[in-house]
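Sequence, please.
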């Protein structure tokens, strides 16, 4: 195993622990993957593992083109969905899937989730929201959508986000959950209409005048 793969395994395991410690997944929930460009391979979390105690060696390496396991382990059942995202969005080099309760609750309730913070405008934009589906149907939906947005919320389930690095894909989920909590807090105070989204003009202004400083991490 080369040094890059070792580092990738460590980062991916750390991200899963971070998701758990931040309450963005339950102990068996969520999954993540990242591309190992040198090897034309993908590292992905194993199926049904305790994410709190996930070790670097538990991660499963699969062939990027065929999705076949290289070595040992059983990949996440969402492998097809991850491959569909990479297939649809060439800028995606990492995918993170989590179950952030506020974001998923707000979107499942039918709230038209907009853009609420400068960070969201810069890194994520407006997430797509789709009805609950799984397996092949979910992979097909992702194939159709992943080229046109940065994150997809699946009602009654969770969110998929992707990016050029695993940390950026992870950050998108934190940013969306943070915005969702703000929406709920404001709406509780004002009886449902407390928080407006940022206008399209403001989003354009943010995109024009600010650059995320952590893009390359
Ligand atoms: Zn899930």
């Amino acid at each position: 195993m080369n040094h890059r793969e070792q580092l990738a395994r460590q980062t991916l395991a750390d991200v899963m622990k971070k998701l758990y410690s931040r309450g963005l997944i339950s102990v068996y929930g969520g999954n993540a993957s990242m591309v190992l460009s040198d090897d034309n391979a993908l590292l992905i979390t194993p199926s049904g593992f305790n994410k709190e105690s996930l070790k670097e060696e538990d991660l499963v390496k699969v062939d990027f083109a065929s999705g076949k396991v290289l070595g040992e382990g059983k990949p996440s059942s969402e492998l097809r969905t991850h491959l569909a995202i990479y297939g649809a969005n060439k800028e995606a080099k990492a995918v993170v899937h989590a179950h952030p309760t506020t974001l998923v609750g707000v979107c499942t309730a039918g709230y038209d989730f907009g853009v609420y913070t400068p960070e969201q405008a810069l890194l994520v934009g407006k997430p797509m929201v789709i009805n609950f589906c799984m397996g092949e149907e979910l992979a097909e939906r992702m194939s159709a959508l992943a080229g046109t947005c940065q994150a997809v919320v699946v009602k009654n389930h969770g969110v998929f986000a992707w990016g050029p690095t695993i940390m950026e894909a992870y950050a998108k989920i934190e940013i969306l959950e943070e915005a969702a909590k703000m929406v709920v807090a404001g709406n509780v105070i004002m009886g449902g209409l407390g928080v407006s989204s940022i206008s399209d003009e403001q989003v354009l202004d943010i995109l024009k005048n600010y650059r995320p400083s952590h893009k390359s991490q």
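Residues 28 and 54 are 10 Å apart (CA to CA).
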